[in-house]
Design goal:
Order of helices and strands: HHHH
Distance between the termini: 101 Å
Strand content: under 5%
Radius of gyration: 38 Å
Shape: elongated
Structural class: mainly alpha
Helix content: 55-70%
Largest sheet: none
Length: 154
């Protein structure tokens, strides 16, 4: 601001060379992302669709296991995927009719079925033991309450 033309009324900006720290520029640079924090290069190389489909399959399997557990049943086999992946379709196309088909998958399935059956039997056994312990605890508590009630009456 310019001052007047009278005495001691000069240019006000020439009077002082001091300025406030609030007048200085601050926060002039932004943080940059480090590797592992979702940089654009990392995001370009990810296959989001495949990851999403895999997470959905896992969530579906988990929900099926929860339903089976609540009903007290074992899941005999994992649910079959609705569509085959591209690599499976290519490998199926490359098979010749004369090539023998491996039967090793059926052995692995039967082993996993046996394991599942054993695990479910063990689980049912543990549940029965816990129920028995709970009944004994409840009986002891009732006996103790009855004894206390009898002492209070006398």
């Amino acid at each position: 601001a310019k001052g007047g033309t009278g005495t001691r009324e000069r240019d006000l900006s020439a009077m002082s060379k001091q300025y406030s720290s609030r007048d200085l520029p601050s926060h002039t640079s932004l943080k940059s992302r480090e590797t592992g924090q979702g940089t654009t290069d990392e995001l370009k190389s990810k296959d989001f669709k495949r990851e999403l489909e895999e997470r959905e399959r896992q969530a579906y399997r988990q929900s099926q296991k929860e339903k089976a557990r609540k009903e007290g049943k074992a899941l005999d086999s994992p649910p079959q995927p609705a569509k085959k992946s591209r690599s499976e379709a290519i490998s199926m196309a490359n098979l010749d009719a004369d090539d023998p088909v491996d039967g090793s998958d059926s052995e692995e399935d039967s082993d996993s079925d046996d394991d599942t059956a054993m695990l479910m039997a063990e689980l049912n056994k543990i549940k029965a033991e816990k129920a028995e312990e709970q009944e004994e605890k409840e009986a002891r508590r009732r006996d103790e309450e009855e004894r206390i009630r009898m002492e209070n009456i006398l």
